[in-house]
């Protein structure tokens, strides 16, 4: 049943409305929003943050927070890239993906071990490993921008279709990597909704002690979660360098904040337990449209950073307000008593 | 005996050096409602955890439906039909009612995939067992506390339960919800399910249970039929102390009033209230929730303003426009949840005692004068006879009653004339309750004027030197506690009489 309270208590309709409003505004001002090439450009800009946001959302739903995914993605793709270049690798793009995913898995497993088994706070752990992985990349691997193996470069040129804007003489290409995003969305949707593992992630985010009492293997679920997020980050790293056709070690660093902002904006509750893929994708779309339109309108980059911060605060505030709207009597003592005399 | 669903014999359990259970026994018959009572720390929780397999006992046996065990695993206990409903109900607030009901069972069955159709069937079956009418798609966090509890009960019933242990199930419920819960418990009983009802609330023990077991200090002190138990015996068993039921008389004849209220009116809350209160008197105000009692005392504490009327404190007209003004005039107010919540539990007793008077104890540039802190702490510990060996221990090492004393000490440090207590012993166990009552009387004897707002009628009768009953914002009658009864008070406040 969809009562009005339940619909308005959700974030997705609001974010969607904001996207529509913003699109119409930009269309009215520039006349270029609803053009094929602009939409394709937006889709292209959306792939990497959307991939990151999926993992980020899963971690936040479980009651944790991850700020290390960009560091994992960067180190995984960089080590993969350098190793394959040094070997003169010229096979398919599958090996780079597998290798980067494997490295991501190892790095995610370290997060998972520290969080699930040593029960350390997730923010501290991922801040630490984030710094560790970034440091390793620039220290041990003396990272600097580098070429990519031919297969990755070729993968970057795989396009689904081209959109032409005859008015401005611009063309934009839809990257094949968007299919990877689609695949991951389908996989994670199924995982979260139709497996006990996925329901376990939500259960842990709702009440960890209750999840344990219900018989969920909380440690194993958390371990899986951080490994999965590591793999996803590794894959995203290759997606990124293939799309820009060179391996820049710092190209993804600093994306954590906008990604977390998008996830929270999409209605994921920062305290855990609540979050959807629909909301997350809408959140990323809104952030991407905002960033693009700010650039188009000539707003300086540091202002877009300030904007990201504002969006985090507003998004979190709205989620908290909605929680207050739908949640009743969280604390026993604040409930009005309706008692008769003793 | 074969009609026992549970028989615990000689169970002992120690944690580190602390012997939580010293050979405890407990027998519950099939279809019986059995009450397990005892003060905080008596071993109730440990015993429940031994029965449900969370703790392994050091000695003793657990017999469930005739099968003897030296220890149980949690899943084994569940398979044998023992279910615990914890105080927090162990629900997932973020998930739907349906999932809350079905998930535990699906996990037990080692399901890999989530089948919503099957979950819906499980959930529908679960709620139908007690005729619980709830929207299965609703998120649990939007439900009232009582409904969350019913979800926990329905979920427990799914596991073919023979014994349901309820750990202080009424702690967060209103009286009406408690009535409904008791209906459900009786219904379960009629189906042959035994209930172990854990509580330290006397009225509930009398109302719901047929037999009782009382623990104290990890040992059995009494068990038997509830019908043969009375209030005095219950208190004695719980605490090991005898309590006199005498009512309070001010030591000396009342002198000039310290608090005079004249024709005080606040629209929609109370009308034309007048009374005097002398040092050493304890005024008990009782009445239903919504009778205006809380608004009245909050007016005296400056939280809300009256529309007309006057208040005099110490013979001088007092304009209590704010809480600060009221405190400066010498009024102290302890709201109902504050006595139990107003402490920094992990901090030392000393710090908790002096926190309200730090300004007075600090010297130049706000540096604390160590000697003054030590002296103040020692004085309060002696004055209120707070039972502790060392004031540098955390406050949580104190018993409930002693913790309350620490909170009170904080107020008394501020040169009080009138102390208002709203529900001073809500949710407190019996022993602490008597301690607090004795403390309140002691304060009055030292010349403080006290106002107690409470719907705990025995409490009002035991503490107050005068009682007024409020109804619909007016004082309906003033009574002498020595010549009135609980029944009479109850009738007056509901307006039955």
Overall form of chain B: globular
CATH class of the largest domain in chain B: Alpha Beta
Find the structural class of chain A using helix and strand composition: mainly alpha
Report, as a whole number of angstroms, the end-to-end distance of chain B: 50 Å
What's the total count of β strands of chain A?
2
Which radius of gyration of chain A do the C-alpha atoms yield?
Answer: 21 Å
Biggest sheet strand line-up of chain A: 1-2
Helix percent band of chain B: 25-40%
Instruction: Give the CA-CA distance, first to last residue of chain A.
Output: 40 Å
Specify which chain pair forms the largest interface. A-B, 39 and 45 residues
Shape of chain A: globular
Output the helix-strand order of chain A.
HHHHHHHEEHHHHHHH
Question: What would you report as the Rg of chain B, rounded to the nearest angstrom?
Answer: 26 Å
| CATH H level, superfamily name of the largest domain in chain B | P-loop containing nucleotide triphosphate hydrolases
Question: What do these coordinates show?
Answer:
The complex is a heterodimer of chains A (342) and B (497). Helices cover 69% and strands 4% of the residues of chain A. With 342 residues, chain A is mainly alpha-helical. Chain A folds into two domains: 70-251, no CATH class; 255-319, no CATH class. In chain A, strands 1-2 form a two-stranded antiparallel sheet. Helices cover 34% and strands 24% of the residues of chain B. The model of chain B has no long low-confidence stretch (mean pLDDT 84). Chain B has helices at 44-51, 74-79, 97-108, 116-128, 145-157, 175-190, 202-208, 231-239, 293-300, 323-328, 338-341, 349-354, 358-361, 370-383, 400-412, 430-445, 457-463, 486-494; strands spanning 4-15, 18-29, 33-37, 59-64, 67-69, 82-85, 163-167, 194-198, 211-216, 219-225, 259-266, 270-277, 282-287, 308-313, 316-317, 331-334, 418-422, 449-453, 466-471, 474-479. Chain B is built from 18 helices and 20 strands. In chain B, the strands form four sheets. Chain B has a six-stranded mixed sheet with strand order 6-7-8-3-9-10, with helices on both faces. In chain B, strands 16-17-18-13-19-20 form a six-stranded mixed sheet, with helices on both faces. Chains A and B meet through helix 9 and helix 10 of A and helix 3 and helix 18 of B.
């Amino acid at each position: 049943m969809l009562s009005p309270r339940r619909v308005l208590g959700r974030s997705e309709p609001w974010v969607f409305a904001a996207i529509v409003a913003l699109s119409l505004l930009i269309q009215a001002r520039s006349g270029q929003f609803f053009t094929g090439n602009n939409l394709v450009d937006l889709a292209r800009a959306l792939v990497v943050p959307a991939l990151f946001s999926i993992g980020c959302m899963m971690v936040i739903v479980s009651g944790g927070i991850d700020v290390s995914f960009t560091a994992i993605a960067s180190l995984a793709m960089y080590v993969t890239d350098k190793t394959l270049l040094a070997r003169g690798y010229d096979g398919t793009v599958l090996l780079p993906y597998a290798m980067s995913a494997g490295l991501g898995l190892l790095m995610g497993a370290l997060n998972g071990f520290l969080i699930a088994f040593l029960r350390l706070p997730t923010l501290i752990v991922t801040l630490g490993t984030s710094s560790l992985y970034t440091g390793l990349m620039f220290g041990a691997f003396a990272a600097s921008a580098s070429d990519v193996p031919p297969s990755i470069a070729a993968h970057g040129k795989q396009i689904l279709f081209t959109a032409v804007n005859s008015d401005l003489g611009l063309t934009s290409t839809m990257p094949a990597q968007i299919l990877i995003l689609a695949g991951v969305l389908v996989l994670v949707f199924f995982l979260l909704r139709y497996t006990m593992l996925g329901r376990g992630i939500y259960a842990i985010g709702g009440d960890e002690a209750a999840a344990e009492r219900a018989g969920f293997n909380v440690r194993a679920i958390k371990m899986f979660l951080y490994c999965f997020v590591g793999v996803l980050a590794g894959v995203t790293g290759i997606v990124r360098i293939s799309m820009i056709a060179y391996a820049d070690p710092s190209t993804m660093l600093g994306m954590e904040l906008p990604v977390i902002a998008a996830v929270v904006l999409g209605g994921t509750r920062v305290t855990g337990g609540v979050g959807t893929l629909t909301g997350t994708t809408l959140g990323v779309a809104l952030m991407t449209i905002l960033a693009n339109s700010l650039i188009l309108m000539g707003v300086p980059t540091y202002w877009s950073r300030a904007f990201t911060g504002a969006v985090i605060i507003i998004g979190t505030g709205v989620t908290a307000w909605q929680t207050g709207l739908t949640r009743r009597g969280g604390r026993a003592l604040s409930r009005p008593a309706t008692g008769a005399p003793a | 005996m074969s009609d026992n669903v549970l028989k615990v014999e000689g169970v002992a359990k120690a944690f580190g050096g602390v012997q939580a259970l010293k050979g405890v026994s407990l027998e519950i018959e099939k279809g019986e409602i059995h009450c397990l009572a005892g003060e905080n720390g008596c071993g109730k929780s440990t015993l429940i955890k031994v029965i449900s397999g969370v703790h392994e006992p050091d000695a003793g046996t657990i017999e469930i439906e005739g099968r003897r065990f030296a220890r149980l695993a949690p899943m084994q206990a569940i398979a044998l039909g023992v279910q615990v409903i914890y105080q927090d109900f162990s629900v997932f607030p973020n998930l739907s009612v349906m999932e809350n009901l079905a998930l535990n069972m699906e996990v037990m069955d080692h399901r890999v995939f989530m089948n919503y159709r099957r979950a819906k069937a499980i959930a529908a079956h679960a709620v139908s067992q007690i005729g619980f009418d709830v929207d299965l798609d609703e998120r649990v966090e939007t439900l009232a506390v009582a409904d969350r509890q019913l979800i926990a009960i329905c979920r427990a019933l799914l596991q073919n339960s023979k014994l349901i242990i309820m750990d202080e199930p009424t702690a967060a419920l209103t009286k009406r919800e408690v009535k409904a819960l008791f209906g459900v418990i009786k219904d379960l009983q009629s189906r042959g399910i035994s209930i172990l009802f854990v509580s330290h609330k006397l009225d509930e023990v009398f109302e719901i249970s047929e037999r009782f077991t009382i623990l104290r200090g990890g040992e059995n002190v009494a068990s038997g039929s509830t019908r043969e138990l009375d209030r005095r015996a219950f208190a004695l068993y719980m605490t090991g102390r005898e309590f006199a039921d005498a009512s309070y008389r001010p030591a000396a004849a009342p002198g000039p009033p310290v608090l005079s209220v004249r024709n005080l009116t606040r629209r929609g809350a109370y009308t034309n209230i007048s009374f005097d209160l002398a040092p050493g008197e304890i005024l008990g105000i009782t009445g239903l929730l919504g009778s205006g009692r809380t608004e009245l005392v909050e007016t005296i504490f400056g939280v809300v303003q009256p529309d007309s009327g006057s208040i005099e404190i110490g013979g001088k007209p007092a304009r209590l426009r704010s809480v600060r003004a009221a405190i400066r005039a010498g009024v102290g107010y302890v709201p109902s949840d504050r006595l139990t919540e107003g402490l920094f539990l992990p901090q030392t007793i000393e710090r908790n005692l002096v926190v309200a008077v730090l300004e007075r104890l600090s010297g130049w540039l706000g540096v604390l004068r160590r000697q003054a802190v030590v002296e103040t702490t020692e004085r309060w510990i002696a004055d209120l006879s707070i039972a502790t060996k060392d004031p540098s221990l955390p406050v949580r090492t104190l018993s409930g009653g002693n913790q309350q004393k620490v909170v009170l000490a904080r107020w008394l440090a501020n040169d009080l004339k009138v102390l208002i207590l709203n529900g001073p012993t809500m949710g407190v166990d019996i022993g602490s309750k008597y301690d607090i009552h004795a403390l309140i009387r002691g304060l009055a004897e030292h010349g403080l004027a006290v106002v107690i707002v409470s719907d705990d009628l025995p409490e009002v009768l035991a503490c107050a030197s005068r009682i007024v009953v409020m109804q619909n914002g007016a004082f309906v009658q003033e009574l002498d506690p020595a010549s009135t009864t609980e029944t009479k008070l109850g009738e007056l406040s509901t307006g039955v009489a």
